[in-house]
């Protein structure tokens, strides 16, 4: 056999060398096949014959969650820079699959004119406001950062974009003339019934929308869940949490300063407190931890309490705030109430959704069940071995989109788009009631049927345009 092989290939080699080369070739082929299937993500449609349907579904769920919760590149603000309050509890996370247009960094600078203030302020120290100059884009190390903001009226005509904050928007805020090359952007982070505006009069004025609404041209979210660059050590974290269980009380904590909300969450919590103890801090309760929304405060409450009440002040379409995303980075379970589809926003078994219970009393009984079962309680933290809650770098998305020079069309039917969120929910007389007749995607089965599309709705169109 050996003599035949050597004659065929005209080589003179020992058995040991021939065996070594064979093993090397087999190893290289196997490794190449593995890497190729990993990086190309070739779907395996031909499952093994003995693979169970449940395993197939689990594989599909894994791929789905991988798409929802992207791999993240973290960015931590320099310790030499003073942090804003709403930057303290989380870090910036850049989804790795985004920000591919790094060549745009050195392209022509884009100027953003601030046509309105931000809640009556110019240049406020706030994460959801643009600061004058290039500061905002450099502060967060945006991959595409060649943008600057200005409020100098002399720069209106040459600005690449005009930014209008809905709360501060008035008819006189809109210039009479514009360049066809400009992009006019309407943005807000508040729910519609806190931003009551007759949007019909703004049809044909704006090109882009920027908000927490999922249908916005630029998503301006309060946060997102991403895959950590370096997964946490499971064993050490488990030991820490087991030790932490000794200091936790069977109680929930609620930081609240708005005592009379549109969602009427305060009445819901009053019912909940009859069954499960909830300590209130802030303007509606005892003295709050200072400064609020900081790592210090969240760490203190996570040591003492088992649950964190994360109820939104408005239960509206897509509306979810830092009340969800901040406590997720600490060893305390958020109890949520909002109008967003939480199953598409956070990993399974990471929060307890009040809408999944018929009454506040049912929710209270479940909290007792979880708090008294150590294994069940700790299972709500398993997702943290892989994922983490991040601040979403909306300002970087804005700068990059401006550099892409996408042709813009004016927005019509803004009233339908924006005020669709009026179809919010309110707790009243032992159930959630609709606030308006507008359609609203209710994600909980027991609430479906409250909202039905209104027939013969009038659509608004406008042919208005502005020329330089």
Secondary-structure map:
Elements: H1 2-9, H2 15-40, H3 53-68, E1 72-75, E2 92-95, E3 110-114, H4 135-139, E4 147-150, E5 161-165, E6 183-188, E7 208-211, E8 218-219, E9 224-227, H5 234-244, E10 249-255, H6 265-272, E11 278-281, H7 295-304, E12 305-311, H8 322-325, E13 333-337, E14 352-353, H9 360-371, H10 374-378, E15 387-390, H11 394-403, H12 414-419, E16 425-428, E17 431-434
Parallel strand pairs: 3-4, 3-5, 5-6, 6-7, 7-8, 10-11, 10-12, 12-13, 13-14
Antiparallel strand pairs: 1-2, 9-15, 16-17
Q: Would you report the number of β strands?
A: 17
H-E string: HHHEEEHEEEEEEHEHEHEHEEHHEHHEE
**Main β sheet profile:** 6 strands, parallel
How far is the N terminus from the C terminus?
86 Å
Tally the helices. 12
The overall average pLDDT, rounded, is: 78
Main location: Golgi
Enzyme class: transferase
Transmembrane segments: 21-42
Domain Fucosyltransferase N-terminal: 108-223
Question: How would you explain this protein's 3D organization?
Answer:
- The chain has 468 residues and is an alpha/beta fold.
- It has helices at residues 2-9, 15-40, 53-68, 135-139, 234-244, 265-272, 295-304, 322-325, 360-371, 374-378, 394-403, 414-419; strands spanning 72-75, 92-95, 110-114, 147-150, 161-165, 183-188, 208-211, 218-219, 224-227, 249-255, 278-281, 305-311, 333-337, 352-353, 387-390, 425-428, 431-434.
- The strands form 5 sheets. Strands 4-3-5-6-7-8 form a 6-stranded parallel beta sheet. It has a 5-stranded parallel beta sheet with strand order 11-10-12-13-14. A two-stranded antiparallel ribbon has the order 1-2.
- Helix 6 (265-272) crosses helix 9.
């Amino acid at each position: 056999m050996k003599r035949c092989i050597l004659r065929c290939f005209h080589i003179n080699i020992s058995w040991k060398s021939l065996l070594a080369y064979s093993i090397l070739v087999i190893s290289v082929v196997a490794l190449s096949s593995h890497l190729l299937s990993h990086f190309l993500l070739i779907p395996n449609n031909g499952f093994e014959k003995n693979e169970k349907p449940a395993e197939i579904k689990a594989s599909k769920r894994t791929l789905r969650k991988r798409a929802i919760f992207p791999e993240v590149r973290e960015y931590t603000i320099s310790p030499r820079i003073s942090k804003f309050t709403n930057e303290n509890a989380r870090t910036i996370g850049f989804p790795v699959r985004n920000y591919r247009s790094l060549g745009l960094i050195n392209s022509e600078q884009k100027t953003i004119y601030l046509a309105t203030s931000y809640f009556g302020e110019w240049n406020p120290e706030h994460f959801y406001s643009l600061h004058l100059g290039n500061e905002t884009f450099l502060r967060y190390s945006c991959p595409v950062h060649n943008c600057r903001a200005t409020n100098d009226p002399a720069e209106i005509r040459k600005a690449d974009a005009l930014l209008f904050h809905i709360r501060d928007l008035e008819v006189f805020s809109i210039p009479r003339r514009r360049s066809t090359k400009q992009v006019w952007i309407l943005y807000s982070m508040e729910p519609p019934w806190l931003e009551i505006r007759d949007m019909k009069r703004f049809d044909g004025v704006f090109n882009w929308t920027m908000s927490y609404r999922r249908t916005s041209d630029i998503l301006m979210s309060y946060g997102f869940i991403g895959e950590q660059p370096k997964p946490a050590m499971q064993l050490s974290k488990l030991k820490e949490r087991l030790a932490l269980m000794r200091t936790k009380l069977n109680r929930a904590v609620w930081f609240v300063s708005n005592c009379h909300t549109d969602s009427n969450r305060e009445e819901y919590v009053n019912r909940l407190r009859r069954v499960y103890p909830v300590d209130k801090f802030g303007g509606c309760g005892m003295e709050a931890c200072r400064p609020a929304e900081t790592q210090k405060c969240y760490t203190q409450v996570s040591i003492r309490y088992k649950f964190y009440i994360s109820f939104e002040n408005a239960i509206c379409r897509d509306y979810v705030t830092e009340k969800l995303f901040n406590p997720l980075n600490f060893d305390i379970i958020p109890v949520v109430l909002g109008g967003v589809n939480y199953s598409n926003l956070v990993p399974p078994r990471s929060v307890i959704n009040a809408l999944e219970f018929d009454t506040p009393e049912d929710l209270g009984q479940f909290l007792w069940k979880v708090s008294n079962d150590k294994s069940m309680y700790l299972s709500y933290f398993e997702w943290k071995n892989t994922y983490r809650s991040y601040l979403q770098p909306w300002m970087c998305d804005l700068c990059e989109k401006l550099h892409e020079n996408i042709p813009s069309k004016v927005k019509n039917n803004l009233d339908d788009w924006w005020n669709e969120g009026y179809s919010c929910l309110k707790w009243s007389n032992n159930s959630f009631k609709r606030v308006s007749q507008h359609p609203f995607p209710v994600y909980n089965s027991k609430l479906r049927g409250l909202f039905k599309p209104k027939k013969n709705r009038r659509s608004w169109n406008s042919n208005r345009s502005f020329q330089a």
